[in-house]
């Protein structure tokens, strides 16, 4: 007998090239089998996913879940409400406070939380002042030591490359290059937040290496991945071709319909979809990972690609593609059941511009390492009278 059987859903697992109706069986915390519909047999708990999508647990590559810094939110609440089973905190803590962040929150979370170490030793504790406006706060050696102490949890380096954060001119460049060097010295990778940067985007991406990530890749403003005519910069395309990755990082001020539409029209898709969830956007315009995914459905990206950008690709970015972002038999049972609600839905970018879509994805049920979580859209407790179960 299986522990959990998710039956009747359409399984989308890009890691296996699978998009077909399957029953998913879970035993002892792992994926036990992907079965033809109706052949799953008995289980202690059955989830009816008829008409729903069943995917690997969603992976959000950009969140802020350190409650001791401004706007930090609770990781486990994001997991239950949004179907995210692995999330990456992107630089909420630096060398002075990452160990405390891990001890007090990361290690206590039920979902898997990984972290990037901010080049600023204070992280985002005083982010409203600009965490690297004073160059004394840059601590590349401390970043490397922090990653070494926290291997497997601290997986890379973060810098927010806005002029009001890292400074202008030489200070801005020195901070960026120290963050790059910390990533190289720690044998990890760098995520760069782009804001109104002290350098152009072509100049910035030319400093990055394969495996590095540029987040907020569809922001508006003066420093964008598109030129003044809406064309993707040649240097941005070249960076993509050599292995630099581009992450959505929707956020409160970093997702612009005009930029993303222009990029998609030119065949420039993001590598990964992520939310940049924090206290200012949790109740709009971001809400959660499935809502962010829904925006790309509205923009015409096929569901298989949207799921790939939300599971398989971020798992590869993290170097964990054999462990998460997959429903392969024998891997940890992280599973998201997504309900596709049809109607007319208003979606907003970070600049409060509206677009209308006809499909809203909602996390109906989440399995985290083989345990069905007590939350979601309600499919886990919806049984029809007289139905076999």
From TrEMBL:
It holds the Pfam family Amidohydro_1. It comes from the Bacteria. Residues 53-339 form the Amidohydrolase-related domain. PANTHER family: DIHYDROOROTASE-RELATED, IMIDAZOLONEPROPIONASE AND RELATED AMIDOHYDROLASES. This is Amidohydrolase/deacetylase family metallohydrolase.
């Amino acid at each position: 007998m299986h522990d959990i059987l998710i039956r009747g859903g359409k399984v989308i697992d890009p890691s296996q090239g699978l998009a077909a109706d399957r029953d998913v069986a879970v035993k002892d915390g792992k994926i036990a089998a992907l079965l033809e519909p109706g052949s799953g047999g008995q289980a202690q708990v059955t989830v009816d996913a008829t008409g729903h999508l069943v995917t690997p647990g969603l992976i959000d590559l950009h969140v802020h879940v350190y409650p001791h810094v401004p706007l930090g939110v609770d990781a486990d609440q994001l997991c239950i409400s949004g179907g995210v089973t692995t999330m990456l905190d992107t630089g909420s803590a630096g060398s002075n406070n990452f160990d405390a962040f891990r001890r007090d929150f990361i290690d206590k979370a039920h979902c898997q939380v990984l972290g990037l170490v901010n080049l600023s030793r204070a992280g985002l504790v005083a982010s409203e002042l600009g965490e690297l406006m004073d160059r004394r706060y840059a601590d590349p050696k401390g970043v490397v030591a922090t990653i070494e102490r926290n291997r497997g949890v601290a997986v890379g380096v973060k810098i927010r490359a806005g002029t009001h954060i890292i400074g202008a001119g030489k200070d801005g460049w020195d901070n960026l290059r120290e963050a790059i060097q910390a990533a190289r010295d720690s044998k990890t990778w760098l995520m760069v937040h782009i804001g109104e940067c002290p350098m152009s985007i072509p100049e910035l991406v030319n400093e990055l290496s394969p495996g590095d990530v540029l987040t907020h890749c569809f922001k508006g403003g003066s420093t964008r991945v598109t030129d003044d005519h809406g064309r993707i910069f040649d240097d941005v395309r070249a960076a993509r071709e050599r292995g630099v990755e581009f992450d959505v990082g929707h956020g409160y001020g970093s997702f612009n319909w005009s930029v993303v539409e222009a990029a998609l029209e030119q065949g420039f898709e993001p590598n990964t979809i992520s939310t940049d969830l924090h206290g200012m956007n949790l109740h709009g315009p971001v809400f959660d990972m499935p809502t962010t995914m829904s925006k790309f459905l509205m923009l015409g990206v096929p569901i298989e690609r949207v799921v790939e950008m939300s599971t398989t690709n971020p798992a590869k970015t993290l170097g964990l593609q054999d462990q998460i972002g997959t429903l392969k038999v024998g891997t940890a049972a992280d599973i998201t059941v997504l309900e596709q609600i049809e109607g007319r839905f208003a979606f907003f970018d970070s600049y409060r511009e509206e677009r209308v879509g006809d499909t809203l994805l909602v996390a109906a049920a989440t399995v985290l390492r083989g345990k069905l979580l007590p939350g979601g859209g309600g499919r886990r407790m919806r049984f029809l009278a007289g139905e076999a179960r």
